[in-house]
Design a protein that fits this description.
The protein has 694 residues and is of the alpha/beta class. It contains 23 helices and 28 strands. The protein is globular. The termini are far apart. It binds iron/sulfur cluster. The site of iron/sulfur cluster has 14 residues, from α1 and α6.
Length: 694
């Protein structure tokens, strides 16, 4: 191609929620590559760097396996190409028949955090206005729903309190836990490591010595599943040694005495007993964490994906509040969100069973009045099913149909044989996606959609920054934009949606979701500000770098005060025993993403890590007679897989690790169905397994 034919658009990365900005190139409607932005100040989260996925990972859009035409399954189980008209009429008939016979709530929709804000908004509008079902959820249920539940109880908003560049990049100290930051949020990790090199302190608590722990002043290896013990231990240490911020606590918080009583038993010796951290090591780490001038508390799914994930995150919020490390430069509560748009599409846009856009309750009559006036239909007024409940209700025969947009529950649910049974039990399954995913293999109708290099819209990154996304390529064949597919269906079902461009959807979002009240494409494109951090209350509001204020509090409750909500230690849903003596934990690798649907199609990424594997500690391997590089069988009470052994002391003795990205050797054949009672998040991080050499 000739250079003058190249289209260039500045856009936002479609992989992780760091939200890196870069120039994307296309020609003749095809994706060609990315390059750093000319002016680093255009990229608030990343300056000019990107990671390997951002730079080389978008070839998936050009995969020959992309869906290019609607497909329907015939009675013999074979898929056939049909016209859009036929496919959409079949969707309309299928959903209508089921709702006529079994009621509106016999249908559920599942949205994805990979899509744009505008698409997520329309998925929940399609569910609530058009289908009239209360059942809408999204994949954030499986990653940070416990973070959201905990932060809403303690500080008010379920989101990161601070900024990437100015705060995470410039803290005096870090407490990082349950986050393989280098591999999951690489550019964020680069910032942290750069600051650590320049003198900041880094303390890492994790069962696995992840790469960022190699740079730490203190690394404490923890027993999987007992994190509240050491976090409560840190709070106790702070109070005992007078490192707590008394004036902040007095000024801005409630229920401190309850917390003090709850953490009192967690002496260093008790922490050693429960969490496996030698008392002396723990005290040294505690002294660093509790005496920092400014501290970022960063965490990810090692904390959240637990049967007591909300307790873990409550404990972290309590710790930051006790130390007064919220609402000031270089400090804050920093959940590292996973997917590119998990903050926006996974929460802000209301693809949640209990929340309308902007985290407004489905049980608030005033909110329902506002939506009824805008939509001409009153949204259902009670919370619907969470994702794992959808699977159970499908097996019970109460849920009869699902409309899945961009998600892959057949690989992402815990104990996937259970999820597959549930999908097969449905009378009708529609999948809207870019590939024939493992979930699409169970679908009656598959609708081909567009992906990030082909999209217009916005993503909201982990620091609540709303940024523009622009496409440079056309969807292949007859594939269409997600918002166009939903609009076509809504109109076939009797509604009059008339969006001409995602910017018109954003105008509706800003009318209905107050935290997006001042967001317009004009502002996002003006170049005056690079994205807007919510809340953005109106068009004159500049956005909100800090959610709260160290002096004034301003926590998101009527009285402006944060709440201490004491957390308790609970056992994981499964503990090792004679039959299954090892503890399995799961996670990511740098070169792959989620269920691997995108990255397993990129040769360059597969050449680095091309198959699943299990990390085993050398002493465990020796006891079992397993050598590095040989294939082994890993078995839990749910199933078994065969994967290659990697013998390494990255994991502790008795703990093993398997990545989450592969369909062959899928870790979720082994994971268990214990759920956090508050958020409904599954316990992906702890399961009991045994291993044998083949
Ligand atoms: Fe994309 Fe995340 Fe890598 Fe940045 S760090 S380039 S947002 S995957």
């Amino acid at each position: 191609f000739r250079l003058r034919d190249v289209d260039t658009e500045e856009t936002t990365c479609g992989f992780c929620a760091v939200g890196c900005r870069f120039e994307m190139y296309g020609t003749g409607g095809e994706y060609r590559g990315v390059e750093a932005v000319d002016d680093p100040s255009d990229a608030p989260a990343n300056d000019f760097s990107t990671c390997v996925k951002g730079k080389f990972g978008h070839e998936f859009a050009e995969s020959e396996n992309r869906l290019t035409s609607p497909l329907v399954r015939d009675e013999d189980g074979d898929l056939h190409e049909v016209s859009w008209d036929e496919a959409l009429e079949r969707v309309v008939d299928g959903l209508t028949d089921i709702q006529d016979e079994h009621g509106r709530d016999a249908v559920a929709t599942l949205a994805s955090s990979k899509g744009s804000n505008e698409e997520a908004y329309l998925v929940q509008k399609f569910a609530r206005q058009v289908l009239g079902t209360k059942n809408v959820d999204n994949c954030a249920r499986l990653c940070h729903s416990s973070t959201v539940a905990a932060l809403q109880q303690t500080v008010g908003y379920g989101a990161m309190t601070n900024r990437i560049n100015e705060d995470i990049g410039e803290a005096d100290a870090y407490l990082i836990t349950g986050s393989n930051t280098t591999e999951s949020h690489p550019v964020l990790a680069t910032r942290i490591k750069r600051n650590v090199r320049d003198g900041a302190d880094l303390t890492v608590f994790d069962p696995r010595k992840v790469e960022i722990a190699e740079h730490a002043d203190h690394y404490c290896r923890t027993e999987p599943g007992y994190d509240v013990a050491w976090i409560n231990g840190l709070i106790r240490y702070a109070i005992e040694h007078d490192h707590h911020d008394e004036s902040f606590i007095e000024r801005n918080t409630k229920h401190f005495d309850d917390l003090r009583g709850k953490v009192d038993p967690f002496t260093p010796e008790k922490v050693e007993e429960l969490a496996g951290i030698p008392a002396e090591e723990f005290e040294a780490a505690a002294e660093t964490v509790c005496t920092a001038d400014s501290l970022v508390v960063g965490w990810a799914m090692g904390m959240t994906q637990s049967s007591h994930g909300t307790q873990n995150c409550l404990a972290l919020a309590n710790l930051a509040l006790v130390l007064g490390q919220v609402g000031k430069p270089g400090a804050g509560l920093s959940p590292f969100r996973g997917q590119n748009n998990v903050q926006g599409g996974g929460g802000d846009m209301g693809t949640l069973p209990g929340s309308l856009p902007g985290y407004q309750s489905v049980e608030d009559e005033d909110v329902l009045d506002t939506f009824e006036e805008a939509w001409g239909e009153r949204p259902p007024d009670e919370p619907g099913l969470k994702v794992p409940e959808m699977m159970d209700e499908a097996l019970e025969g109460n849920l009869r149909a699902m409309y899945v947009v961009g998600e892959n529950p057949a690989l992402s649910e815990p104990d996937i044989s259970h999820a597959e049974e549930a999908l097969d039990e449905l009378d009708f399954l529609v999948v809207q996606d870019i590939y024939e995913t493992e979930t699409a293999e169970h679908a009656d109708i598959i609708l081909p959609a567009a992906t990030s290099p082909e999209k217009e819209g916005t993503f909201t990154n982990t620091e609540r920054r709303i940024q523009r996304v622009r496409g440079v390529a056309d969807p292949p064949g007859e594939a269409r934009q997600d918002w166009e597919i939903l609009q076509d269906l809504a109109n076939r079902l009797g509604y009059e949606w008339d969006y001409g461009h995602p910017r018109e959807v954003m105008a509706e979002i800003s009318d209905l979701a107050p935290i997006y009240g001042g967001v317009t494409y004009e502002r996002l494109e003006s170049g005056d500000q690079h994205g807007l951090q919510w809340p953005v209350w109106d068009e004159d509001h500049p956005g909100t770098p800090y959610l709260y204020d160290y002096e004034e509090g301003e926590f998101n409750f009527e009285d402006g005060k944060a709440r201490f909500v004491p957390a308790d230690v609970q056992k994981p849903g499964e503990v090792p025993d004679e039959a299954y003596p090892l503890t399995l934990t799961s996670g990511r690798v740098l070169y792959h993403w989620h269920t691997g649907q995108l990255t397993r199609r990129v040769e360059g990424l597969m050449s680095h890590v091309g198959e699943s594997f299990v990390e085993i500690h050398p002493e465990t391997a020796e006891k079992l007679g397993i050598r590095d590089g040989e294939y082994v069988r890993v078995e839990s009470r749910r199933g078994d897989i065969v994967v290659k052994a990697e013998v390494t002391d990255r994991v502790g003795e008795g703990t093993v690790f398997i990545p989450m990205h592969f369909a062959a050797g899928a870790v979720n054949e082994l994971t268990q169905e214990s759920f956090d009672p508050t958020s409904g998040i599954p316990e992906y991080k702890v399961a009991s397994v045994r291993i044998e050499a083949l």
